[in-house]
Amino acid sequence: MNEYIPVLIMLFLAVSTAAGMIIATTLIGPKKNFADKMEPFECGESPIVSPKQRYSIKFYLIALLFVIFDIEAVFLYPWAVLFKDLGMFGFIEMMIFIFILSIGLIYVWKRGALEWE
Amino acid sequence: MLADMIESIAKILFIFGMNIGFFAPVLGWVERKQSAVMQDRIGANRADIFGFTVIGLFHSIADAIKVLTKEDFIPTGANKFFHTAAPFISLVPAIVTFCVIPFGGRYTLFGHDVNLVISDLDVGLLFIFAFSSLATYGAVLGGWSSNNNWSLIGGLRASAQMLSYEVAMGLTIIGVLMVYGSLKLTEIGVMQENFFRWGIFMQPLGFVLFLTCAIAENKRAPFDVPEAESEIVAGYFTEYSGMKFVMFWMGEFLEIVTISGIVTTLFFGAWHLPFITDQMLLSFFQFAGSNGASILAMLVNIATFFIKVIFFIWMQMTIRWTLPRFRYDQVMKLCWKMILPLSLINIFITGLVFLR
């Protein structure tokens, strides 16, 4: 547990640096508010469409794929650390696991979920 | 006990000072000056103190003062809390990640055991991944909270790109773990004392894939589609100016330093000089007494580590100013159809080679 105390000190330093930067700039910087200036940037035009609308389903698919393959990576970590102790048995087991997930990747690939046009 | 406290406070101040006081401002200057040299321009050279310009280095100080006196701008309709939190979230993990990277070995000084890493965690690599993936929130929240179409597109691109490359980056590192059998970065460093046991010889494919993923994860050119200024103004930080913009920018530069540190530790022998073991170094400095030899060896190792880090920073800067930006579909295709299958094949081949 003692090993985490320096991390906490570093975290504290980082947070105070970042917070200090934000606080300093809000205190020192000028504040001039008028309606035209506060508009979101739209190349000089008034914004016509609000950004709060539906967007492409591709991004949701990537999020789902991320969950699947990141969990695969999580399972691979402990195996990789113990790889030499587990030997051939562990290697074959893990290759079967990776093979099953590769079928998933190939399926997703063939269904065109990775295509962007 | 007291010696331990002094040691860890000294290490924290050293790394914090190195990152915030040296790397962040100097990289800001390097980015401008190197791009100028590569594009045959002069670059930043005007800021001076009493007539001394020092090839434009004072621009870092001038920028810091200028940015402090700029307005903290939040557009109408933006979510004030998340708009402020986003740069905060991208800067803090970038500073903290360096905690587990060893910048030297173990030395005995005046009977006290000095271990040159801020915190020698057993889960070092997982700690790095955990903290570096927090930076995703910064980009996504920044894009979403700005109430701006360009920002939202940039934020979405950033989220999909960073998630994809995080998976690939996690898988490219598996090969290294299989070779060294540890998540602890100090142990990985110690095992690379022999020049021919350096990660680059054990995992050449792993190195190339990891560096690609790391640059993409950091959203730098040629993977800077989330902030592609020729398509979507400035992407997720269109609505950021002044100090908040600088915080995003500092986070990016500190990530470069961290990536270089990881690459050095995993693939390029950490703090070791090629062909020179720790024992040889100590006996070479024996003329200074046992404590003096330890100190000199320590300084040589720290210098070796940081020279390697600076080399990889230079390499990333050169890549950034050499290659043109990829299209978004190419970036995603590279991740899912090239790097992911290749890293799985890399795991398979590593297994076959190292299984005895």
Task: Summarize the SSE layout with pairings.
The complex is a heterodimer of chains A (117) and B (356).
Chain A: H1 4-28, H2 35-38, H3 58-81, H4 83-110
Helix pairs in contact in A: 3-4
Chain B: H1 2-38, H2 59-68, H3 80-96, E1 106-109, E2 112-115, H4 124-145, H5 149-172, H6 174-180, H7 185-190, H8 199-202, H9 204-217, H10 242-267, H11 278-284, H12 289-322, H13 328-354
Antiparallel strand pairs in B: 1-2
Helix pairs in contact in B: 1-10, 1-12, 3-4, 3-10, 4-5, 5-9, 5-13, 6-13, 9-10, 9-13, 10-12, 11-12
Describe this structure in words.
The complex is a heterodimer of chains A (117) and B (356). Chain A is an all-alpha fold and 117 residues long. Chain A has a single domain, classed as Methane Monooxygenase Hydroxylase, Chain G, domain 1. Chain A is built from four helices and no strands. Chain A has helices spanning 4-28, 35-38, 58-81, 83-110. In chain A, helix 3 (58-81) runs antiparallel to helix 4 (83-110). The radius of gyration of chain A is 25 Å and the shape is flat. In chain A, 16% of the residues are buried. The mean pLDDT of chain A is 82. In chain B, strand 1 and strand 2 form a beta hairpin. Chain B has 356 residues and is mainly alpha-helical. Helix content of chain B is 66%, strand content 2%. Chain B has one domain. Chain B has a two-stranded antiparallel ribbon. The interface between A and B is large, with 69 and 76 residues.
Descriptive terms for the model:
heterodimer; A: 117 residues; mainly alpha; Methane Monooxygenase Hydroxylase, Chain G, domain 1; 4 helices; B: 356 residues; 13 helices
